[in-house]
Amino acid sequence: MSDRNPPTSNRQLLILAGLFVLAIALTIWGGLAIADLAITRIPVSVEQKLGALIVPVYEQQAEDSVEQETLNQLLDRLESHLDDGDRDYRVLYVNQPTVNAIAIPGDVVVIFQGLLENVESENELMMILGHELGHFAHRDHLRRLGRTLVVRLAISTLFGNLDWLSDASTVLVAISNSRYSQSQETQADRFGLTLLYQTYGHVAGAIDFFSRLSQDSSRNWDFLASHPAPQKRVRALQQEIQQQGYPLKDKQPLPVVL
């Protein structure tokens, strides 16, 4: 009697594997497209409710301090140039050596001590804050979170493991580990550059921090994990400064308390 179930050939295995990978890719692609469309339609009120689940975790790490108060005063100066009456942005200052700044749902910018230790002027710091406000303006922080969660959901569904959905820390991990696209970074840079000009009448200090990042990527700064800063991004900023005719004047020193 002939074997009715001959062993699967390598070619068949490759075909099956290819179909499986394609199914994952299509599931993820479809989910990402839907997520991006949905995010553009999310009301600010809903975003703030999401923030109510996330922000307290960072609030527990932050403390009322002179540094946090000063950072919020700087942010208020930038915010005064925004036509965004339904938003009220604020800074949470976390006294940890992490070199990073994060825009999170709930209109909050998280600034870590390690970042402050690596900025050299008020203008440079204001560019970073303006850059983060740019991510809010374009809803990049929600797109980044949505894409990360959709990918994880698609893969978990295919493998039948959805236990992570009940774990609130998943959202925090997604925020920490996801990255912005180059186009998102470019838009946020332009937004921050405009705010810097509106605040000071010039854009001195705009590229300083990003330039140091691109020249010293070997230091494994956390900022590079979520805000990639290749040299071409710095060149794009320089080109934008030239095209807009933004002047360069004297930079302001950091506030004494920082």
Provide tags for this entry.
globular; single chain; mainly alpha; Mito/Outer_Membr_Metalloprot; 5% strand; 258 residues; 3-stranded mixed sheet; Peptidase_M48; 3 strands
How would you sum up this structure, described in words?
The protein is globular and about 50 Å long. Helix 5 crosses helix 8 and helix 8 (182-200) crosses helix 11. A hairpin with a 3-residue loop joins strand 2 (101-104) and strand 3 (108-112). Strands 1-3-2 form a three-stranded mixed sheet, sandwiched between helices. The relative contact order is 0.13. It has 258 residues and is mainly α. Residues 19-24 have low confidence and may be disordered. It is built from eleven helices and three strands, in the order H-H-H-E-E-E-H-H-H-H-H-H-H-H. The longest helix is centred in the N-terminal third of the chain and has 30 residues, at 10-39.
